[in-house]
Amino acid sequence: MYIYTGSFFCANLNLTFMKRLLLLIALFLSVCLCTYAQDFEVPQNYILKEKGDYAKYQADVLKAIDWLQKTSWAGQAEKRKQVNGFLIEWMTGSPTVSIEIGSGVTKLADKNNGLLIVYMAGYTKYVLENASDSDKNKPKIAGVKAVLEKYKSDSSLKKDKALDKLVQLEKDGKLEDWVLASFS
Asked: 108, 162 in Cβ contact below 8 A?
């Protein structure tokens, strides 16, 4: 293989070296992202009373959601409890986010209780990152997708046939139909 690099040709580029280099870069980036997600600390002495208080903590809420999504339930139970508490307090009082929970969604947390807050977090993240989007179904879909991502990525969660069914629906491109039906 010859690659033209300006004024000379490089003969027989070693593709194995390139593959290893790309793998090393991908590994480095994933470690950085995991480290970033695990470095989140709940704000100390936060106050959520007035409308402006919620806006002040919006960036922390997004970091908390990322931490919750990327951190295994196998460890850090006390910190997860603090993060959940912060998120629930922010989400329930927020003047900008009003979470809708359908009956089908509550069933998703039957075997893994913490998945309900994962749904709420995914819903909230979508609303915060897409403030100009008025489609009321997209946050619901984002919330369910957050649940499925957590379920697929965290081996410490209990196996659940209902969630396995939704994973398959997602693969088949039918997840949105299920979400819309579960809110009817």
From this structure: yes
Band of pLDDT at residue 182, cut at 50, 70 and 90: confident
The two tokens of residue 132 are 């100009």
What's the sign of the alpha-carbon dihedral 73, 183, 166, 128?
negative
Average pLDDT over residues 98-117: 91
**Nearest C-alpha neighbor of 162 from the set 107, 101, 123:** 107
Q: Which residues are CB-contacts of 79 (< 8 A; sequence separation ≥ 6)?
A: 42
pTM exceeds 0.90: no
The answer to whether 104 touches 124, Cβ cutoff 8 Å, is no
Residue 101 pLDDT exceeds 80: yes
Tell me what the mean pLDDT of segment 97-120 comes to.
92
Task: Output the CA–CA distances (angstroms, integers) from residue 50 to 84, 87, 144, in the order listed.
Answer: 21, 16, 30
| Alpha-carbon distances of 75 from 58, 69, 81, rounded to whole Å | 26, 13, 11
